[in-house]
Fold:
Amino acid sequence: MAESNQILSQSGSVYPAPLHVVERAWISPEAYHEMHKRSVTDPEGFWGELAEKELEFFQKWDKVREWNYPNYKWFLNAKMNITHNCLDRHVRDGRGDKIAFIYNNEKNEEEKISYAQLLTRVKKMANALQNLGLQKGDRVAFYMPLTLEQIVAILACARIGVVHTIIFAGFSANALRMRCEIAEAKVVFASTSTSRRGNDIDLMHVVNEAVEGLKCVQNVIVHVRKGDSYSFKSGQLDYQTLLESGSENHEAPALDAEDPLFILYTSGTTGKPKGVLHTQAGYNLFTHFSTRVSFDLHEEDIFWCTADTGWITGHSYIVYGPLSLGVTSVIVEGAPTFPNPGSWWALVEKYKVNVFYTAPTAVRLFMKLGAEWPNKYDLSSLRILGSVGEPINPEAWEWYYEAIGRKNVAVVDTWWQTETGGHMIVTMPSMDQKPGKAGLPFFGVDADVVDRQGNPVAPNAVGFLVVRQPWPSALRTCYGEPERFNNYWMEMKGFYYPGDFATKDEDGYITILGRADDVLNVSGHRIGTAEVESALVAHESIAEAAVIGKPHPIKGESIKAFVIAMNGVQVTDQLIQEVKDSVAKELGKLAQPDEIEFVEGLPKTRSGKIMRRVLKAKEMGTELGDTSTLED
Ligand code: WTA
Structure:
């Protein structure tokens, strides 16, 4: 990990965007600079005009932005409904037959749904949920794989102002239970199974264990997958029967611009996940506009974002942004390399995907498997390749550009977070691309790289990335924990502080170097060291634990745990495996440590805080840095 103020060498290559991309781009480099300047000096004018042009409101706002530091609101007193913008208006305007989603999976089962069909199903489900007694402001949890059924249910919640909270269907029963409990979810949407690398994974045993005895959950709505049979328990309803019970007539109610849309739990520096809350209008506008301009999407384009709806990327760039824009998206349930490492490229060829958006960890995986796989397919439809979730190293960038993009695409890196709702630092398609550098601030994003005192650092010097003012899709709070929200704006001199180290070059391009806090990024998934540590000490043989991230060629980071055994415990390989399994059980497989090392003691400050930095330096064989606060 870089230290603050270290000067990084200016690494070289610049790739101009291909002419065919530049020619059709919504935003030229000149327009970018002019528009960006206006967006941060006159945010109300900029976003107000855009909202009028891009979205529909049932009642106009009184004021575009109100900023009572650290709180802010956008489009005050406006009335709207995000699903009207995502569905009703497209159908009304004659685009009902346009395909909204092309679904595919590991068994190559295809399903297509048009905007009109999607709207009808959403209306039916919205009625059904209202008949169940759900009301605006209630919370509904999800534990479903990426399916059309899930998207219908998400949108039905949004339509009636019910706040969805999606839990990635790879999390453990404990993790699901904790999230349902703190969100006080009244209903849980679940699926019986999903297929991953050819294995059928039973999801209902996780859900049943999670909701067992949980008072807040009144109903579980179970989507029984094709070929599955399921015996319903009390309080459990069949998804399909429920859907069919709802009438097809449902007017989108006028919701307030600031009504909550969803809560998404993400990792912070404590053991408890943060419930990041987003609201209707600002989020709608920002994801709509960033989908259009970051990916340069036009009416006929086919877009494929490979994320899962359990993460923010799926919320913003599978569901809300593309639908609001009226795009046709490909969605795929399952693993990237199953049944073979060419499966995804076969789908790009089949559906003539124009814009493809994935994570560096996937790119590195494909890179390891070799260019012979993508080489078998016609990928000439691709125009833009997006990247998200972690820094993309120049080698992976160049492989993506050459092996997938055939040197005829723009590679668009996008830095952002669950909290930011949408893209914050982007290399717009028409701009010069610099491998490894995320790019320039998105519209409305007043970003800089500063030192601990909040002063801008010199070009290429390492500092903290900050944002000076709120943008429309900035998180509004951490659900039930406003003090955790305040920390984002109070830790660093009144700026929004995302917790990442960065540099900025002479042209203003920002490079993200990684987290400056105790949060890991494993395969693009955020995992708090504290979460893993508390899962480790929950094991009866473990007294203390400290967790670090180690560079990993594919996952970006891997998890290494240093643990102290309880007195008298014999350390065996079996125990190590058992401890690893217990973390998977506690949190989910994605948080399972790759390595566990038993140690006698852990480096701590005099006040008893574990110095993970020291462990990491020792592990990596690098300088220990300042150890003056080290106890021993
Ligand atoms: C990291 C994912 C470098 C970063 C959308 C951030 C990135 C965290 C990039 C947020 C990128 C995300 N380049 N790092 N293009 N995108 N990150 O909330 O550390 O799951 O703070 O949101 O991922 O992760 P989150």
